[in-house]
Amino acid sequence: MTIDNVIPQVWSAKLYKNLNDEHVYADLLTREYEGEVKKAGDSVRIHTVGRVTIRSYTKNTTTLTRERLDAASQVLIVDQAHYFDFEIDDVDGAQQNPKLMSAYTEEASWGFNDVVDADVASVLQAGVATANQLTAATNVGTGAGDDDAYEILVDLGVQLTTQNVPRGGRWVVVPPWFEGMLQKDPRFVSFGTAGNREVLKNGMIGRAAGFEIRVSNNVPLSSTTYTIIAGVKSAAAFVEQIREMEAFRPHDSFGDAMKGLLLYGRKVLDPSRLCSIDVDQAA
Fold first, then answer.
1. What residue ranges do the domains of the chain occupy?
2. Which value, in Å, is the radius of gyration of the alpha carbons in the chain?
3. Which terminal residue of the chain, N or C, has fewer Cβ atoms less than 10 Å from its own Cβ?
4. How far apart are the C-alpha atoms of 132 and 189, rounded to whole Å?
5. C-beta of residue 134 within 8 angstroms of C-beta of residue 156
């Protein structure tokens, strides 16, 4: 296989699609600021609209007080960069199997995805407002006296509502074992319409307690304690751009090689729109 058989534009498009398909945390954040990211260190300035003061008015009596509003701004810096660089030797038969390069490129996309989602999860965890960090549930299970998984979701929702977070578009990400607890709960499995139940039956985790529920192996973990995070898209922003994909023939070997560079940035915009709870699985 010569380098003419490897088209960088094709691989790049495939890899970017894989990344979009497989993100969990990153896809739950607003990506409206993504735009055109050109190089590491680029930044996006995001304007924040504050509250407008509401005052009492009495006809023919009140003198109006005008409030001067200035939009505050935050800067999201595209400062995270990761790459891959691999080679397939001609002796390994790559010239007889052109799909081999595609398979490894797809594997690289999974690697990118895993690194990005774990990083975004840790940033969200650190960014939750202190008031929205609920008391830990140390014994989540289905036995007598165990903390109830479904009720934990309800508590997260109540806290977000207390903070005036919009009810629409709420999400929560849970670890696989927590998903298992929900699947054993008839309040979750029988929730909603027949169509919703069909979604659950087909393996997607579905909705309950006002949340779109996602499952991930990248839920922040410390020892045996997982931090479940809930929120809305507007709580944080994510921007991502594959800077470059390049197929080449290394000068010092006989093989085809591919390298790729991924740039991204992430930032919590409003800590009050996130909520979290530390949970441990019952023994």
1. 3-281
2. 24
3. C
4. 27
5. yes
Q: Can you read off the two tokens belonging to residue 67?
A: 């409030």
Nearest residue to 121 via CA among 76, 75, 175, 71: 175
Is the separation of the CB atoms in 44 and 75 below 8 Å?
A: yes
Consecutive 10-residue averages of pLDDT for the chain (283 residues): 54 66 86 71 76 86 84 84 84 57 81 92 97 95 91 96 94 94 77 49 63 93 97 94 77 81 92 97 91
What 3-state DSSP class applies to 106?
A: helix
Amino acid at 205: I
The DSSP annotation for 230-245 comes to: EE-GGGEEEEEEEEEE
Q: Which CATH architecture describes the domain 3-281?
A: Alpha-Beta Complex (3.90)
Residue 54 burial by Cβ neighbours in a 10 Å radius (0-12, 13-18, 19+): exposed
| Class of residue 70 by CB neighbours under 10 A (exposed 0-12, middle 13-18, buried 19+) | exposed
Kindly tell me the burial class for residue 260, based on how many C-beta atoms sit within 10 Å of its own C-beta (0-12, 13-18, 19 or more): buried
- Which residue bears the tokens 């903390």? 147
Beta pairing class for 43-48 and 72-77: antiparallel
